[in-house]
Amino acid sequence: MDLTIRGTDPVSDDDPAWTAPPRSVAAPAPSALSAGWRAAVVVVLALGVLLRFATWSHLWLDEALTVNIARLPLGQITEALRHDGAPPLYYVLLHAWTAVFGTSTFAVRALPGLFGVAALPLMWFAARRVGGPRVAWAATALLATGPFALRYATEARMYSLVTVFVLVGFLAVMALRDGGGAKPAVVLAVTTGLLLLTHYWSFYLLVVTVVGLLVAARRGQPGARLSLVAVGAGCLLFLPWAPVFLDQLKHTGTPWGHPGTLRSLFDTVFDFAGGYWDAGIPLGLMFFGLAGLALFGAAVDRNRVMFDWRARAPGGWVALVAFGTLAVAIVAGQLGRSAFAVRYAAVLYPVFVILVALGTQPLAEQRVFNGVLAVACVLGLWANVPNVVGERTSAARVASVLNAKASPGDVVAYCPDQVGPSVNRELRAPGLVELTFPRGNAPQFVDWRDYAAVNKAGRPADFAQLLLDRAGPAHDVWLVWSPGYRSVSGKCQNIIDVLDNARPDNRRVVKVSTQYFERPGLVRFRANQAV
């Protein structure tokens, strides 16, 4: 394929060679595609649906904590979230879901799996709005096999629901742009409110969206003013929750991580592709390349692509929404010293997928289009293998030892408290005394209020003595611990040292292993007096 670069002469908006490929090289409609290609798409979509319910891992901290909060009576969820730092909608939905289907690992993950499936047809319609049928098929296939989408469709958290709301809002804005009236405006308003009540990074997406709509309104583009009104009305739905949000903002935050940096822009794309490993790296590079084609490329004919340094529509504004949201999030994190986590980028992920799919538009030769999309899908499925067969946490290993060897009256301590929810979920041994460092609370929840200050004030020697007193001479002390947690520093090791001096008959029963995302280990300190 020849590449022609244009940039020395300005290209006018009505230049037919720039605005669209000649009619003779227009992409074939889906109905004109071969039966084999259509069959391949069906297989890819079927795999994507299946993999949204396929993972063997036990629940890690965030998932176990989410389930524990959702299981509370509805009237107690708001207070629990004051100590957690999240908005309420997903917890209320999960509360209703578990009331019907229970709290098994498969059941609690089936809800985000269903949201992940619902996102597929929404993606098709959203991508079709901006790029036509062929881009719609590409976007849907990329979402169906996307490692990021598959990972968070199998996690008992709100991220796949965020994807659904973003796509619904995207479609509503497009409908208003095309002359839609009250109905899409109402949909946009409701979706805006629900999105804010699902994840706080939605604020960053709305900032970029509002700026774009203001520019569009100033240029007199249809539907922009009504879209602004709808977004503003949707924000009103958040007002009843605003006092809780402000309280969380003051007291919870994200003391467990660091703000994003410029590198986070690049890391996010590779994490969308599955991370920095054999499958993720080439897929991430493909994402960058296709995003570049969406911005600067256009087909001259079936064998040539023309590049222009001026970004073309619609790739330009889609890229601004995606990367603009990410940039705003990074800047806000730096200013507010809040943590950056790639999973929060679920608010921009579906827009990014549309951008990448638009990069297939200049690939006018059908065989090239098929080949690029096939490679991207295969790499995506490959990158998802660890999610299917891997284990996110060593909590089940720790719990299995406790279930087999701990006796009623033994003390199980957790340092830090963040390793508590996932291990406690798997415990079956009766009569254990469970305490978390630094507050001495039960392990089902993590109290994030003023977390860094409380951890700093925590005294390992006093906590270790509390454990010894509660155990007495007849019972073992078991310490579930993991190093490397921010704001706890070396205090867990200090607890081990104090207990080691008091009870030299001890053994590291489960070692901390880096093969897990969450990696608690287990140390047993035997009683000084035989039972």
Observed structural traits:
disordered N terminus, five-stranded mixed β-sheet, alpha/beta, three-stranded mixed β-sheet, 531 residues, 24 helices
User: Average pLDDT value?
Assistant: 91
Strand content: 5-15%
Task: Record the strand order, biggest sheet.
Answer: 5-4-6-8-7
**Total domain modules:** 2
Q: Can you tell me the overall shape? A: elongated
Helix content: 55-70%
Number of helices: 24
Count of DSSP strands: 8
Q: For the report, how would you describe the main beta sheet?
A: 5 strands, mixed
**What separation lies between the terminal Cα atoms?**
79 Å
Low-pLDDT stretches: 1-25, 28-32
Radius of gyration: 26 Å
- SS-based class: alpha/beta
Q: Any chance you could write out the topology, listing elements then pairs?
A:
Layout: E1 2-6, H1 16-19, H2 35-51, H3 61-70, H4 74-82, H5 89-101, H6 105-131, H7 133-145, H8 147-153, H9 159-177, H10 182-196, H11 202-218, H12 224-236, H13 242-251, H14 262-272, H15 280-296, E2 297-301, E3 304-308, H16 315-336, H17 349-358, H18 366-383, H19 385-389, H20 395-405, E4 411-415, H21 420-426, E5 433-436, H22 451-457, H23 460-471, E6 477-481, H24 491-502, E7 506-510, E8 521-525
Parallel strand pairs: 1-3, 4-5, 4-6
Antiparallel strand pairs: 2-3, 6-8, 7-8
Helix pairs in contact: 2-7, 3-5, 3-21, 6-7, 6-8, 6-9, 6-17, 7-17, 7-18, 9-10, 10-12, 11-12, 11-16, 14-15, 15-17, 15-18, 16-17, 20-21, 23-24
